[in-house]
Design brief:
By secondary structure, the chain is α+β, with helices and mostly antiparallel strands. The chain has a domain of about 200 residues: Ribosomal Protein S5, domain 2 (2-Layer Sandwich). It is about 40% helix and about 20% strand. The longest helix has 25 residues. Bound molecules: alpha-D-galactopyranose (GLA).
Length: about 400
């Protein structure tokens, strides 16, 4: 199902509800976006500042209280799972559900109850999304949508938006078992149309940064490789997190005054840590080098964004991609195939893998007048180079949007 706008999405949800015998007539519809991270990719769990935008691939959920304490919810993306039903406060043990998408609503129920929130109003709901898996934060979008909707049905107001971020991360960390950070939740929850979202972890602050005037008209392009990435807990992501933590521990034990890799900002400090561990732990030093350089580039990228210099933003995005591939070593074959293809197109300003890594989607910043050329290049090259995914890949041309909207 190719959804092109909200009206069509809502119509489709109504149709699905009818088929499944769920009553959402005249209920609310909550739309949650995907996100595109401009930097620092893999910086969240290393303590760096973050910058990104909300993008117009969404999850739409229509819901209405059903007068009982039961939740009945159906996803048009996972028809084989049927209607997921449970009594509030009575869901399977954490990390015990692996196959079904039901682990998300279960996880939300589990986390909200654990936080002492009084949830006793059940609801009927149907949802559908068009966010590609792996790279554009489908799971965070779903968790946030479910949390806000469940709180809404139960009349619970949470003022502190960072609390919502914590809850959504807890659903994934504690119930599902994915070791994700907070990048995705922050970039979706706070996203504003036409703005970049700048998060500073030390101050726990959000700033909105408009793109400077006179910028070349560009598009954000998601390059879904058609591959399926398993959970982060089963991927290189988990290994990289552990490596970064290990280097921080080693450095602390050697007397360096740091708490995370982002603290290694200063060239002299970087040089000293490198000198200390380069021989014994070359791989860990490569991870540090990526974070160190990407963090430096981050501030240049922010300045370029503010100045409307999207060419420089793109060039830095590309540099980050090389770092993620060669130093952080978190990319994958199909992701790099996409990058190689679009890099050759005149008008591609920058490209790299996106998100957790290994599989999923790459992304590119492309001049608006070159989008068709990028699509044509992918259509002609990708199926040849990755025949297993010839029928599964997709190119998503995105604009920036608000992260959360209720109709
Ligand atoms: C995944 C995680 C995020 C973040 C990115 C990489 O999307 O969920 O927390 O670490 O990977 O930047």
């Amino acid at each position: 199902m190719d959804i092109v706008d909200d009206g069509q999405a809502v119509g489709y949800l109504r149709e699905l509800a009818g088929q499944q015998g769920l009553d959402v007539v005249a209920g609310a519809v909550r739309r949650s976006s995907s996100r595109f991270c401009l930097g620092v990719e893999h910086g969240d769990y290393n303590g760096t500042e973050l910058f990104g935008v909300g993008t117009d691939r969404f999850i739409w959920m229509s819901y209405k209280p059903n007068g009982s304490d039961r939740v009945r919810i159906y996803s048009g993306n996972f028809p084989d799972d049927g209607v997921v039903e449970f009594t509030l406060g009575n869901v399977p043990e954490p990390k015990s559900v692996h196959e079904s998408w039901a682990r998300f609503p279960y996880g939300v129920d589990y986390v909200l109850h654990r936080e002492g929130m009084k949830l006793d109003k059940g609801f009927d709901a149907v949802l559908y999304g068009n966010i590609p898996g792996g790279g554009m934060s489908r799971s965070a979008s779903l968790s946030l949508n479910l949390i806000l909707s469940m709180l809404d049905v139960n009349g619970i107001a949470v003022e502190d938006q960072f609390k919502i971020v914590d809850l959504a991360q807890a659903v994934e960390n504690d119930y599902i078992g994915s070791p994700c950070g907070q990048l995705d939740q922050i970039m979706i929850l706070f996203a504003k149309e036409g703005m970049g979202t700048h998060y500073n972890p030390k101050a726990q602050s959000i700033d909105y940064v408009p793109l400077g005037e006179g910028a070349t008209d560009f598009r954000i392009v998601g390059l879904d490789t058609g591959t399926v990435r398993g959970g982060l807990e089963k991927s290189t992501y988990k290994i990289r997190r552990a490596e970064c933590d290990k280097l921080v521990e080693l450095a602390k034990a050697a007397g360096f005054d740091i708490t995370c890799l982002a603290d290694i900002k200063d060239e002299r400090l970087y040089g000293k840590v490198l000198a200390e561990f380069e021989e014994s732990h070359p791989d860990l030093c490569d991870r540090m080098t990526y974070i160190y350089k990407a963090q430096k580039r981050f501030y240049e990228m922010m300045d370029a964004w503010k100045a409307g210099d999207i060419e420089t933003v793109g060039a830095i995005f590309r540099e980050d991609g090389f770092g993620l591939r060669d130093e952080y070593k978190i990319s994958g074959d199909e992701l790099e195939t996409m990058c190689d293809i679009v890099r050759r197109v005149d008008g591609t300003l920058g490209e790299r893998m996106l998100g957790g890594g290994d599989k999923g989607a790459s992304g590119a910043l492309v001049r608006a007048d070159s989008v068709d050329a990028v699509k044509a290049a992918v259509d002609s090259e990708y199926p040849k180079r990755q025949p297993d995914y010839a029928d599964k890949y997709a190119v998503h041309v995105c604009r920036t949007v608000d992260g959360m909207k209720v109709f």
